[in-house]
Amino acid sequence: MTQRWGGRTGVLVVKSLNPAMTTVLVKVELTSSQGSNRRRLGKVTASTPASVKFKFNKRSIGRYEDRIEFTFEDKHLKKRFAITRPLRVIVGNETDHEALKPTSPYVDPRSRNRASRHEPSKVGVVLGVPPPSLHAVKYGPVSLKQQIDDIQRMFLPPDLTSVTYARHFKHLLWIEEYRMASDIQRYDMSDTTLNKQNVFYYLAIPGLAEKRPSVLVGDRILFQRQNMPTSKWYEGHVHVVRQREVGLCFHTSFTAVGWSKTQKYNVCFQLNRIVLRRQHEALDSPFNQERVFFPTPQHIGKAGPQASTRRIAFCNPLIGANPRQAEAVKEIASLKPGSVPFIVFGPPGTGKTVTVVEAIRQLLLPKNPNIRILACAPSNSAADLIAERLSSALSPTEMLRISRLLSRRCIASSMLSGVGMPRGHFSWIFVDEAGQATEPEVCVPVKTLSDHKTNLVLSGDPKQLGPVVMSSVARGLGFDKSWLERLMARGDVYGVPGSGSDAPTPAPGQAKAVVKLTRNFRSHLAILSFPNERFYGGDLEAYASAATTDTYLNSPLLPRAATRKFPDDREASSPSFFNVDEVLQVKSYVQQLKNARGNFKTADGDIGVIAPYHAQCQKLRIALRSVADSVKVGSVEGERKAIIISTVRSSKEFVNFDLRHTLVAVTRAKALLIIVGNPHNGGWIGSPDIPWDPQEGYGARVRREAEAEIDELARRVMEVSMDASGEEDVN
Asked: Where is this region: Disordered (predicted)?
C-alpha cells in the first residue's frame, strides 16, 4: 500500500536457483506498456542475482494491477523463455483501510433449523390457520422461475379483470407476507437479557438504529426462558423505541416466573400484520368500477371546450407561466364527477407536487363549498410535504375540522372507513408519488371511500422508484408494478410521448386523462441530457436556475476521469457488499468539495452520497463522521447541489440493476454528479437493461472532448520506472 501523495519504491530480486545454469536477462517490461521499455543484457546466476527497482507515483485512490515480464535466454540451450509476476499497488490511507476493512471473513449464512432457533410455533403456542396461499408453494431448492410458474398456474387468475382483481392481489400479498415473516425471523436472538426500568422491560437490539430490524411501537416480540425449551413463550408489546433498545410490557405473570437481570432468553420477532390486514380488507371491499380500475376510451368520452379555454386565477403565479402545469390544473378542475383516474406524469424535478397542490387549492375555492378532498401518499414524508405546501394557504380548521381536506398516508386512511366515514364523503382522492405504492396500498383509500362519483388523481413517474417489494417471487409476478404504471401502459387512454407504452395514443378529440410535465427545475443540462434522451423521449427542458446549476463550472474537480479498480468485499454473515476503496475515494471528493475555494466551497447540506448497499452506506458514514458528519448518505429521495454515487459492484456479472434506481440516483444532482465505479467490469453500460452507452449521444460528445486527457491517464496508469542493478531505468 502507498499513501496517496507519497509514492512507493521497491526492489525485485532475480536470481537463479540452479548453480549450473547461466542465463541472460534480455529485457524487463510491463504488460500494459510492451515495446516501450528499454532493454539491457545482463547475466543472472546463483551467485550474481539481478535487482530491478521500481517506483510508483500514482496519486488517484484505488487499486492498480499490472504484470511484469522478465525475458531470459538460456546460453546452453540457446532458447528464450519468459517469467511473469503480478504487480499490485493500493493507493489510499492505510489507517482508513484498517478501520474500514472486514471485521471478520465473510461466511455464507446457512438456513437455520427452525427448531434449533427455538421457534415458538413448535412449543407453547397454539397455532392459528394461515391464509391458503401462505404455505401452498414452499420455498425450496427449485428455481425462481419455477416458483413463479407454479404460483401462476395454481393460484393466479389467467387475466386481471375487475372480477379477478381482488383474488390476484390477495395472493401476491400472501407471498410478500411469507417473505416479510422470513426476513424478520433472521433477527431472532438467544442468550439475551432484559433490563427492567419502572414498568417496562428493555431489550437491546443490535442494528436497531439502522432499522435492521425495524421495530415500531405496537409490535410484538416473544420471549422464552433459555435452556427451558418446553416453557411458555411470553408476548411483549413494544411501548418505547429508543436508538438501541425497546421497552416492552408483559403480562403480570411474566415477573412471577422469576425475572432477574441475569436470566437469559430466546427472542423471536413477530411480523406486524396490521398494514397487510388493511390491504386485504380493502381488496375485499365491493367497489370495483371499471372506469377506475380498467378505464377504456369509452369511459373518457369527447373533450369539452371548458378545459382549454377556461381562465383560471392561479394561486401560485409560477403555475400560470408553465404551460404543462397550467394545463394539468385546468384539466383536473374541469373533470366531471365519476371520471377516469387522471394522471400527472411528473419526471424528476418537474414540479408534480406543486401542480397537485395548485389543483387542490383550485378545487377548494369558495365557489366549490361541497367539495371534500383526501390527499394521500405512500410515505409519511410525502404526505407531510403536501400538508406543508397547503398549510400556507389553508387554515388547520379548514383542512381538518370541516374535513374539506385531509392529508394522510395511504394505509392510515383505513382509519377513516374504520370509524364509519361513508363512501362518497370525499369527492376527490389525490395520491401523490403513486408510482412508489403497490396497488393494494392505493386500494386502501380508493376501494374503501369511493363511490360512483369520486374522482381519482394519481401523480408520479413510473420511470422512477417503484414500490418496495421484498419477495423476488412477488416481483416476478408483477407486484412491484404500481397502479400508475399499469394504467400508463394502456396507451389508448394514457398514451403520451416517453411514457413507455406500446399501445396507440388516444384518438383526436378524446378528452385528456394524463398530462406530462416537461420543464425540469432541478438539474444542469449536462446532468439532465442522459435521462432525458434515454427515458423521456427528449421532451424535458432545462429550466433550473443557472445560479445553482453553474456552481461548479471551471471547478478543478472537472473534468475528472480515471481508470482504476475498486474491488468489493463482505464481512461476517452479512450478505450486503461494501467497497473500501470507493469509500475512501468518496471521502476524498467530499473533502475537496468542502475545502474548495470561492464559489466551489460546498456545505455538508449541499452534498449527497448514494450507494445501493446498506453495508456501503454504513462504511461511508464511518469514514465521513470525522470530516463531514452532516452529509446525507444512502437515500435517493432528496435532491442536492452535488451528488456522489458509489456503485460498489458496478459489474454486469454481479449486479442486477433496477433501472429506476439508476435513474433516480442520477437525477438527484443539481449542479455536480460524480460516479465512482470500476470501468473495467463493464460498469453501468454492461447490462443490456441499462442503456448507458458512452459511444452514443451526449456521452459520445463528452468522451471526445475528454479523449486526450483519458489517453494520457491510460498511458500513465502504471507509473513504474524500473532499473536493472547498475543499469538504466526501464520506463
From this structure: 99-119
